[in-house]
Each structure stands twice: as C-alpha cells, then as structure tokens.
C-alpha cells in the first residue's frame, strides 16, 4: 500500500518527526538533497551566533574564554562526534577538509617499501579521493599503476569478495568508502578491515556519505583511520570543517604533514623548533582551526546526541523503503534502481534513467530538490531528521507526473555547472 493515508500513518508513528521543525525548510519545497548538503538547523544557526558573540566579546581572549574556547574547539567537537563513528573521544578531531585530511593520513601511513608500494582504492570512489591517492603516489616517484583500483561488475556496486581479492602482497594501504557516493551501497567495513589486517595492509575509510546516516564501529573493528566531511547528512553547513579518526593503536605515529596545531596543547605556545606532537588524534591537525566553519557543527551534533544514530538509521531505511515502494507502484518499469534494494543501502536512492538530467531539472522546477550524477543518475535522499513520509509520497507523485507527461522534455539533457 502506497497511499497518502499510509504515509500519514507512518508520520504519526515517527519518533523523529519533531526534529523537522528545527530545520529551515522552504515552504512549497521538498528537499531531497541532504546527501550533498544538509539543511540549516536552528541549533546550528545559534551555535554560529554564539561563536560570533565570543569574538565580539573577547577578541583574542576568545581562544581561552567563553562558552566554547576556540583553542580546544576541534578536540571538543571531536569528542561530540566520536559516538557517530564508534570511536573513543581521543581518536577523533575535527579539522581540515576531506581531501586535506586524506593527504595527511596517506602522508602518515603510506610508507612504500620494495615489496609493499601500492595503494588500493576502488573505481567507483569519489574522484577527489582518487586525485589525492594519485598525487601521494607521485610524491613517492612511483608510477600511476601503483594506484590499484577494485573493479565493479555492474558499474554501481563493489563486492566484498572483489575487494579482498585485490588485497595482494604489494598493497601497503587501502582507502575505501563506507558508502559509495553514487549507488549508496554500504560496504562491510568489519569484514574488509579484518581481511586487510590479515594481509598486513593498513586500511582507512571515507565516511562522507555515511556519517550522520548510518552507525559505525571504527574502534571496535580496528580500522586504522577514517576521514569525512560534515556538511552532508550531519548538516554542518557548506564547507564546514571536516573530521578524521586515527585508531589509538597508532597514537605516537608522527604525522606526515606537521603543523603547529598538531602540538600538545600545553607545549604549543612554547614555539620550539621541534614539534611536541599531541598524544592523540589532535596530532594530525595542521593549521589554525577555522572557527566560524566549526561553529555550526556544535549545534548540528547536539541534535544527533538527542535523536541517536540508531534511530536515525531505522527511519532512514524506512523512508527509502517507502520511496522505493511508491516508485515501483506509481511509476513501474520506468527507472532502474542503482542502489541496493536491501539494507546494504545507505541514506539515498539512485535512480537510473536516460533522461536523468532533464528529469532533475523538471523536479526542481516543481519544488523537489534532487541531485544529478552524470551520465544518467538521480540521487534522492529523504533525510530522517527533517523529511516526512508524506513528503516522499508527494515527491513521487510529482516525479510520476513529470515522467508520464514528459514535461522533462522542456529542459536540456545535460547537467548545470554544479550538479
């Protein structure tokens, strides 16, 4: 049953529905692009104002004064974020950007030897990760072939077996996504980590499309490192400061890229010519933290602390399940699902259609905000904290009208500058 009555019943039973009022949602719009940029919450807005006020009140003394002293903010927010990735508080710090953090982690852990001198990634990974991997390989004067890519059989997903098969004796480090950014497939991090360590491989994960959407247990499974952005499912704001995890077993490993904010706090302003690195994940910071880009994350994390990531995951699966049911019932034989149909999917669906770019433009014209991925993919992310089942139902009705009446033909079938 995919009626609006069912959607309303599901909304009545939804324990997370109350959080939707905490987000700024445009009237007449159904926002389904939270896997690219989450919406602004009132708490995130308030935490920005709080940090601005500390600048106003204290000037330079804001580094050590006020509700959130800036000097300790990256570590403090790392502690708040740790439960979302299943880490100990000292294993997480919010710093840098996704790609600079990956560069830092590879500079730290990729130490090629005569035998082990390749980095394992996958061909479906977000290109920025692959660019970073390629440049780290080049910095070691190694040929491009030392980036080894796991192949996909269907162009949408990667099998655990294929990943493990690619873990040959020449691989030093593996970098894989927790959730594939196009199809939304959730990888089996525990099995993959276990296999890597059995083969002497250091392994890290990109959590950009999983943090705030699915639970993680990075410490328990023994992942060596991880990195992520905070502006998608975590709703930390455009260009917000990113995060990284380093397992405590690596504490004391010198950062590959040293900078003064990686110093032990009590030693940082000694300004010695040799760094005294922090004894935890804080060591992997480089420069002065971007306080105003950290600010909204504090408010955003407070919502997750209340709601709980397990409840978020439960509703997310229910929303995407209901959306698939509606699409299959209302628009049969129109789209191919590129995402997994079972619970190995993340927080978004991936619809494949030859007219995907046009359909996305038509959706936006009709008040539904999707995400296009070239050449033929539509990502739709009903977000647990601010989307409802009724919104899902209405979005599918709009999609049905666009497809049946071919109103997408009013648009050019190519992406805009930003897709």
Automatic annotation (TrEMBL):
InterPro entries: DegT/StrS_aminotransferase, Kynureninase, PyrdxlP-dep_Trfase, PyrdxlP-dep_Trfase_major, PyrdxlP-dep_Trfase_small. It catalyses: L-kynurenine + H2O = anthranilate + L-alanine + H(+); 3-hydroxy-L-kynurenine + H2O = 3-hydroxyanthranilate + L-alanine + H(+). Pyridoxal 5'-phosphate binds at residues 98-99, 126-129, 206, 209, 231, 260, 288. Pathway: Amino-acid degradation; L-kynurenine degradation; L-alanine and anthranilate from L-kynurenine: step 1/1; Cofactor biosynthesis; NAD(+) biosynthesis; quinolinate from L-kynurenine: step 2/3. The modification N6-(pyridoxal phosphate)lysine is found at residue 232. Keywords: Hydrolase, Pyridine nucleotide biosynthesis, Pyridoxal phosphate. It holds the Pfam family KYNU_C. Its EC number is 3.7.1.3. GO terms for molecular function: kynureninase activity. It comes from the Bacteria. Its cofactor is pyridoxal 5'-phosphate. Homodimer. Catalyzes the cleavage of L-kynurenine (L-Kyn) and L-3-hydroxykynurenine (L-3OHKyn) into anthranilic acid (AA) and 3-hydroxyanthranilic acid (3-OHAA), respectively. Belongs to the kynureninase family. This is Kynureninase. It comes from Solibacillus merdavium. The lineage of its organism: Bacteria, Bacillati, Bacillota, Bacilli, Bacillales.
């Amino acid at each position: 049953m995919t009626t609006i009555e069912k959607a309303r019943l599901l909304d009545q039973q939804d324990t997370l529905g109350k959080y939707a009022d905490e987000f700024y949602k445009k009237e007449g719009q159904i926002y389904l692009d939270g896997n690219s940029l989450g919406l602004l919450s009132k708490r995130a807005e308030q935490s920005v104002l709080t940090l601005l006020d500390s600048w106003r009140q204290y000037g330079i003394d804001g580094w050590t004064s006020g509700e959130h002293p800036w000097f300790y903010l990256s570590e403090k927010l790392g502690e708040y974020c740790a439960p979302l990735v299943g880490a100990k508080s000292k294993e997480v710090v919010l710093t840098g950007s996704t790609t600079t953090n990956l560069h830092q982690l590879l500079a730290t852990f990729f130490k090629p030897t005569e035998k082990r001198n390749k980095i394992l990634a996958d061909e479906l990974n977000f290109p920025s990760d692959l660019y970073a991997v390629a440049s780290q390989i080049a910095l070691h004067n190694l040929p491009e072939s030392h980036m080894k890519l796991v192949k996909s059989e269907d162009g949408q997903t990667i099998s655990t077996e294929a990943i493990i098969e690619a873990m040959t004796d020449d691989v030093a480090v593996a970098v894989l996504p927790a959730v594939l950014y196009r199809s939304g497939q959730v990888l089996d991090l525990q099995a993959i980590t276990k296999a890597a360590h059995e083969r002497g491989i250091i392994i890290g994960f990109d959590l950009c499309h999983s943090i705030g959407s699915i639970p993680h247990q990075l410490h328990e499974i023994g992942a060596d490192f991880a990195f992520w952005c905070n502006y998608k499912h975590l709703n930390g704001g455009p260009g917000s400061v990113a995060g990284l995890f380093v397992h405590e077993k690596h504490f004391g490993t010198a950062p590959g890229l040293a900078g003064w904010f990686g110093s032990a706090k009590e030693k940082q302003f000694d300004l010695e010519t040799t760094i005294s690195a922090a004894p935890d994940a804080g060591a992997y910071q480089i420069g002065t933290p971007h306080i105003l880009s950290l600010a909204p994350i504090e408010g955003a994390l407070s919502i997750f602390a209340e709601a709980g990531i397990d409840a978020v995951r439960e509703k997310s699966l229910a929303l995407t399940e209901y959306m698939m049911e509606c699409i299959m019932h209302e628009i049969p034989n129109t789209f191919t699902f590129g995402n997994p149909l079972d619970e190995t999917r993340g927080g978004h669906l991936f619809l494949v259609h030859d007219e995907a770019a046009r359909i996305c433009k038509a959706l936006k014209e009709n008040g539904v905000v999707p995400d296009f991925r070239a050449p033929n993919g539509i990502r739709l992310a009903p977000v647990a904290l601010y989307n409802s089942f009724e919104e899902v139902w209405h979005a599918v009705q709009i999609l049905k009208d666009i497809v049946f009446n071919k109103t997408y033909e009013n648009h050019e079938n190519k992406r805009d500058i930003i897709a």
